[in-house]
Write a structure and sequence with these properties.
222 residues, alpha/beta, Fructose transport system kinase, kinase, transferase, P-loop_NTPase, PRK/URK
């Protein structure tokens, strides 16, 4: 089941890769360190867009830091009884993510690198200190499902971001991507379909309610 957009929901703005890179470059040109957030439902293409922008701008201008590095470990999720809902909003360390975003926002040229965790899909676990963010890189691009959530410490992270873009694609495209991703990382076709249309869709239904708080709602096909 998906959530129908309310009558007040503004339509997505279709933008090309070149247009989005140019907008990100303008964010990077602001004074000091700036943080650009990219959010959207599972399978929308957030990590692909973040990686595309960072590669286009180059390592002297931009680095990617994903929210998924703050997944709780499988062992912790088992203890909490949440393993079968991995990816839900309460399966992340939101306070840890907000603290990292604050550190990244405060960093300046000449400061030592800040090390951020990464998430490895092949083992379904976060890895500490997986990416270094040098102090002299002006733009951090961070992506994840819950950047616009209003509970917990998510608003603290959002407050440090210069802009947040909500990435939107048709549901059939998004679901097909999710099913293929889950299958590629070890799930059977049936299990991949059930997860995409079950747990992932429940998360998508929550995420879409945050859509209109974004600075930009963008349609991007990659």
């Amino acid at each position: 089941m998906t959530v129908d957009p309310s009558p007040s929901t503004r339509p997505a703005t279709p933008l090309t890769t070149a247009q989005l890179v140019a907008r990100a470059r303008a964010v990077a040109a602001r004074d000091g360190r700036t943080i650009l957030g990219i959010t959207g439902a599972p399978g929308a293409g957030k990590s692909t867009l973040a990686r595309t922008i960072v590669e286009a701008l180059g390592p002297r201008l931009a680095v990617e830091v994903g929210m998924d590095g703050f997944h709780l470990s499988n062992a912790v999720l088992e203890e909490l009884g949440r393993r079968d809902r991995k990816g839900a909003i309460d399966t992340f360390d939101d306070a840890g993510y907000a603290a990292l975003v604050a550190r990244l926002g405060d960093a300046r040229a000449g400061d030592p690198p800040v090390y951020a965790p990464v998430f490895r899909r092949e083992i379904e676990e976060p890895i500490a200190a997986g990416v270094a963010v040098p102090g002299d890189v002006p733009l951090v691009v961070t992506e994840g499902n819950y950047l616009l959530a209003t509970s917990g410490a998510w608003p603290d992270a959002r407050a440090r971001m210069a802009e947040i873009w909500y990435l939107e694609v048709p549901d059939d495209v998004r679901l097909a991507r999710l099913e293929e991703r889950h299958h590629a990382f070890g799930k059977s076709r049936d299990d991949a379909r059930r997860w995409a249309r079950g747990s992932d869709q429940a998360n998508a239904d929550l995420i879409v309610t945050t859509r209109d708080a974004a600075d930009l709602v963008v349609g991007w096909s990659g």
